[in-house]
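Hi there,

I know you've been waiting on this one. I reran it after we fixed the sequence typo, so this is the corrected version. Both the input and the resulting structure follow.
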Amino acid sequence: MKYIFLAVSSFLAIVAQMIAGENFVLFNFLDLALLLTAYWAIYRSRTQSLFVGALTGLLLDAALGWHLGYNGFGRTLAAFVIGHSWKRFNTADQPWVRFSIFAAASCINSMSIYLLFWFMQRTASGIFLGASLLQAVITAGVGVALFAAMDTYRRIQTDRAH
């Protein structure tokens, strides 16, 4: 049942990204699937976040009409970076560390896709890298705000329970 929930949430993140991207230009630079993967890496199991990253990447490849595996590899690598970095660094009171982790994961995701395109001798524009940097900054900013709100909500719920 857990894996069905993972698959459905991954599918909904991709659909929401595509619908919002059609209506609002800003959402073209916000990576909801990466934030979903980050959620699983931070608050759930890091192993399951690898699954979520691979699944969202494969779904995104299928939606974009790319060969399967480009986004799957990048998002799996990003899930590993987020999970490993979050475990290593003190992120509780330092938003700049959170921002750096999200931005680095987004850049690693984009750079791995760009390198895979290059290795497979497919055309990849240099504009892709510039847009990827903008996407990393916007995704990291939204991620810091979103995860700070979730941490605050968890603290409030924990205080009420005691």
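Quick highlight: The chain has one domain: 2-161.

Best,
R. S.
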